[in-house]
Amino acid sequence: MNEKFAVPILYSLRNCPYAMRARIAIYKAKQRVRLRDVVLSNKPAVLLASSPKGTVPVLVLTQGQNQGQASTAVSVIDESLDIMLWALTKTDPGDLLHADDPEALPEMLALIARFDNEFKDCLEQYKCAKRYHQDNFTECRQRCEPYLKDLEQRLAQHSFIMSSKESLADIALLPFIRQFARIERQWYLQSPYPKVRQWLNQYLQSLMFTKVMAKYPLWLESGEEVIFI
User: Fold this and answer.
1) Cα 216 to the chain's mean position, in Å?
2) For strand 74-77 and strand 58-62, is the pairing parallel, antiparallel, or unpaired?
3) Class for domain 104-208, per CATH?
4) For the chain, what are the domain ranges?
């Protein structure tokens, strides 16, 4: 197989939080992918053929890459958390999965699920209330705050969400906390969550985040194959 085409394809969208956290995990794992930036208003036919639900991120790889066998058959991972786990299971130089602690990964996944299934809904309501100047704007923000308080308490005890070491939970939650911080910027800067602000800022000001958020030409327009690592 041509070496270039053995590299998995990642369909992504620069500011989508799910696509963002997939790129962060791939970057942390030092896994090479062919990055194809798309817009969802003009979905490539090959993306829809790989994943008919038409959302990003989508990782397309051969069975050889998935199973350690030489093959041209294609398999697809189209959930961001699954892509993160795929990357970090292959290589985890920063030990984001905390491999020596058998209880760590289940705890991380439970926290991520809580934010994905509960906080994300509250966040969307907060965003809509701000965008459309709804009367329940403050109430929507207050529904988000128990999740921020949880993180604040955790970060008051150690530098990262789970412990003194960075973990899968940090990079999985990062894009959504970034979104929250941008909705009502002045309130956020004066809010009673200084540890959350410190944690978020260390990511936003990092070389890692700059590289993960680099802007590339849209793949459909350029046809350019960008190797992302």
Assistant:
1) 18
2) antiparallel
3) mainly alpha
4) 3-96+210-228, 104-208
pLDDT tens readout for residues 92-130: 999 999 999 999 999 999 999 999 999 999 999 999 999
Q: What residue type is assigned to position 110 of the chain?
A: A
Cβ(6)–Cβ(185) below 8 Å? no
Q: How far apart are CA 183 and CA 3, in angstroms?
A: 43
CA 219 to chain centre: 20
The two tokens of residue 2 are 């041509």
What digits encode the pLDDT tens for the residues 203-213? 999 999 999 99
Architecture of domain 3-96+210-228: 3-Layer(aba) Sandwich (3.40)
The 3-state DSSP composition of the chain as helix, strand, coil percent (nearest 5) reads: 60, 10, 35
| H or E element at residue 75 | strand 74-77
- Alpha-carbon span 168 to 118, nearest angstrom: 18
Reading the block at residue 58, the tokens are 């989508």
